[in-house]
Design a protein that fits this description.
By secondary structure, the chain is α/β, with parallel strands linked by helices. The protein has five helices and six strands. Helices cover about 30% and strands about 15% of the residues. Helix 2 runs parallel beside helix 3.
Length: about 200
């Protein structure tokens, strides 16, 4: 094998490696293997008891919000354009301090007859983003995620969103962060109200 042939083979091999392992500098995802959902909806878990209660569960108000969550996907006077019905539902994994993300979406999953994927830790949103962008079964689908507020901004960043608030306020339970992807994976972010409970924000 002459030197020119060897050089050609080496250059081709390097090009292949560069293509396979080209990554997005912001998210760390391997670009050439990505697929994209049509839309991702992120909600915070519903209301919790006071910290002094040392409870892992939702408060009574939180249980009411969880029961009302299916209304997000129904047309109404307050919601002439309802949210897209989820094809997949995720919730942050139960911890020693909180089972609330799973509890928040449980009534909805029962109504839609969908399972809850609660295998991803709240502390590692990158793994959930890798699952959603790296598994073709989510391509073109609508995903609902119930998460804890301390890591929602980090999750949105890993999902390629831009323009979202830096922090989800501790007192806020009535928002939906909607991330919509075009066919090339460009994300558009909208912060929308739930308008499910008395006192919820109208805008």
């Amino acid at each position: 094998m002459n030197s020119l042939v060897r050089l050609g083979i080496v250059c081709f091999g390097l090009a292949v490696v560069a293509t396979v392992f080209t990554t997005d500098s912001k998210t760390g995802h391997t670009k050439d293997k990505l697929t994209f959902p049509r839309q991702i909806l992120i909600v915070r878990h519903a209301e919790k008891p006071p910290d002094v209660a040392m409870s892992v569960d939702l408060s009574a108000e939180g249980r009411d919000r969880a029961a009302a969550l299916p209304k997000l996907f129904e047309k109404s006077e307050k919601r002439p354009t309802p949210f897209a019905v989820p094809d997949f539902i995720f919730a942050a994994k139960d911890s020693g301090k909180s089972h609330r993300p799973v509890q928040t979406v449980t009534p909805l999953t029962k109504q839609l007859k969908l399972p809850i994927d609660a295998t991803f830790s709240n502390d590692d949103p990158a793994k959930l983003a890798d699952e959603l962008f790296g598994n073709a079964k989510y391509a073109g689908k609508t995903i609902l995620i119930s998460w804890r507020h301390s890591s929602i901004a980090a999750l949105a960043q890993k999902l390629n969103a831009t323009g979202f608030p830096e922090n989800w306020k501790d007192s806020v339970f009535d928002r939906v962060w909607q991330i919509t992807f075009d066919e090339k994976g460009k994300a558009t972010f909208v912060d929308r109200p739930q308008q499910l409970m008395p006192g919820d924000s109208a805008k």
